[in-house]
Specification:
The complex is a heterodimer of chains A (117) and B (146). Chain A has 6 helices and 3 strands; from the N terminus they run H-H-E-H-H-E-E-H-H. Chain A is mostly helical. Chain A has a domain of 71 residues: Arc Repressor Mutant, subunit A (Orthogonal Bundle), CATH 1.10.10. In chain B, 32% of the residues lie in helices and 36% in strands. Chain B has 3 helices and 6 strands; from the N terminus they run E-H-H-E-E-E-E-E-H. Chain B has a 6-stranded antiparallel sheet with strand order 1-6-5-4-3-2. In chain B, strand 5 and strand 6 form a beta hairpin. The longest helix of chain B has 30 residues. Chain B is globular, with a radius of gyration of 16 Å. Chain B starts with 5 loop residues before the first strand and ends with a helix. Classes of the chains: A mainly alpha (117), B alpha+beta (146). Chains A and B meet through helix 2 and helix 6 of A and strand 1, helix 1, helix 2, strand 6 and helix 3 of B.
């Protein structure tokens, strides 16, 4: 399995974890409490994020805190990869916008023209 | 130096007219793309927008070079104060009631990729957007849908 930025952000739960801890470092329990999925599943996501270099675990007393290491993204050296992330985020946002819009302005489900290709 | 264009494709659950509006109407563009003072889908129309990474603003300068309504939109894309010029093309293909969007970004190799601060700044800008509003919206949307 590849371990890079794209792997890290390929999963919606991992994106949400990054989003959560990009504002402040949080311990594992606090992160797990923010999700409906099981704690082991969250641990696994965090493990992947650390392997991808996006999250750093810091021991503070008894607690282990997850800190976002967004700088690692700046180390992506391939120019095209940087644009890939940029456009991926933009096209995700477009999808979100189109979905939201469809939800608020009357669902257009009648456009099913069932033409067999 | 690579010179092949960057290409990314997506299929959206919306008709082409709907997607076309989202990529050419400034009020819609600002909800997912950038805040642009004025935008007209006309060849020769110039527009600009700012991307901010929290410490520095990057001015993007663009000029429309091709418009085929509901099908294709191309504009140049460069950064104020930096050499190089690139072209961004949105192509829409109707697939049943859905739309396949093909985005092509050509000419990236003309930018100063050996300038780490430029590369990094530009990248952080995209990331800030990703970690901030776009990602948040996207994530929330996804969790609502499921």
């Amino acid at each position: 399995m590849r371990r890079d930025v794209f792997q890290a952000i390929a999963d919606p739960t991992r994106r949400e974890i990054i989003n959560l801890i990009s504002r402040q470092s949080l311990n594992l329990n606090t992160i797990a409490d923010s999700f409906d999925v099981s704690r082991p599943a969250i641990s696994k996501h965090i493990k992947i994020l650390t392997e991808c270099g996006l999250v750093v675990i810091k021991q503070q007393g008894r607690e282990r805190y997850c800190e976002a290491n967004l700088k690692s993204l700046g180390e992506v050296s391939d120019w095209l990869e940087q644009y890939r992330i940029f456009w991926t985020s933009k096209l995700d946002a477009l999808e979100s916008f189109l979905n939201k819009d469809a939800g608020t302005s009357g669902k257009k489900k009648s456009t099913k023209k069932a033409k067999r290709k | 130096m690579k010179s092949e264009p960057f290409v990314i494709e997506r299929v959206y659950n919306a008709p082409v007219e709907r997607v076309w509006k989202a990529i050419t109407d400034k009020n819609e563009m600002k909800q997912w793309y950038f805040t642009i003072a004025a935008f007209k889908a006309e060849v020769g129309f110039e527009f600009q927008f700012e991307g901010n990474d929290g410490s520095k603003t990057f001015l993007h300068l663009c000029k429309i070079t091709e418009v085929i309504v509901n099908k294709k939109l191309t504009y140049s894309w460069r950064y104020d104060g930096f050499p190089g010029n690139s072209f961004v093309t949105f192509e829409l293909f109707a697939e049943g009631g859905k739309t396949r969007l093909k985005l092509t970004h050509e000419g990236l190799e003309t930018f100063p990729q050996d300038n780490p601060s430029f590369a990094k700044k530009n990248f952080e800008m995209g990331w800030t957007e990703l970690a901030g509003t776009s990602l948040k919206n996207y994530v929330e949307q996804v969790s609502v849908d499921k």
